[in-house]
Amino acid sequence: MVLPEFMWFIIFPISLVVLIKGSDWFTSSAEKIGLMVGIPQFIIGVTIVSIGTSLPELISSFIAVCEKASGIVPGNVVGSNIANIFLIFGIGAVVGGTLFIKYDIINIDLPLLTGSAFFTVLVCWDRYVSIAESVLLILGYAIFLAYTIQSRNNNESATEQEKPRFSIIPFLVVLGSSALIFIGAKFTIDAVIHIACFFHVGSEIVAVTAVALGTSLPELSVTISAVRKKNAEIIIGNIIGSNIFNTFAVLGLPGLFGGLEVPESLIVTGLPVLAIATLLFLVTTQDKQVSRWEGLLFVLFYILFIGKIINIF
Predict the structure, then answer these.
(1) DSSP 166-199
(2) What is the CATH number of the domain that holds 255?
(3) Domain assignment of residue 163, yes or no
(4) 256-294 pLDDT, tens per residue?
């Protein structure tokens, strides 16, 4: 059955909600399963929790490749990373006032984030992400994962955490939420393709704006929660971890299945803005504090970026 075009404007937000909620339920239940089987807390944090907030981007990217719309993948990655820095980080600073960073992110974390951003620019610059480049991206994430596990392992408290009682419910929730993630991703990508056709624009434009913003909502939720707890480290760590995962895993894993096309509009606007956003993030966090005024400036940058993408400015 062929749906009327206007229905896709209704399906799009609904499918995004299903995708994000499915990811949230999957992450929390998988975390419980990890604790039940005795996986150390730091391993759960660096794998299940950090990857879980980026599941919407990852699964929707796989669906896009299957739908022969691989140009959506780099658009989603670049758009999400820009949204994380300019919008999510900016909102965190605006709502929380001055953010004070106690953890040392200058020596390794910020260079890794900056390196991943410029890796994205170099990989996408020739308008195609090859299978060989995808392998390099996966290796990049393996390096980041090894560093994170090692650093958390060194700082892990020696106190033993009590194992929760075994329950079948988390396993059932993981199965059900996996189905929700797949269904939500499938209809999100289908809606993007139809909406792009309706407005006679490239699907990557919808991906770098609406899809990227929607799939960044888990990061926004984490940021608001961290602001309430006055924990700037969670905000910074979530953005750094999510952006690095998006670059290396969300761009790399789907590329293993035949390579990815990179639209010209992304080369002209998306990649330069990503480089600028990362450099501004690097400069702003050097003194380990971020003011509300800097946060407002970041949000203005995001508004300008979206305006340029959809030709308002």
Answers:
(1) P-SHHHHHHHHHHHHHHHHHHHHHHHHHHHHHHH
(2) 1.20.1420.30
(3) no
(4) 988 899 998 899 999 999 999 999 999 998 888 889 999
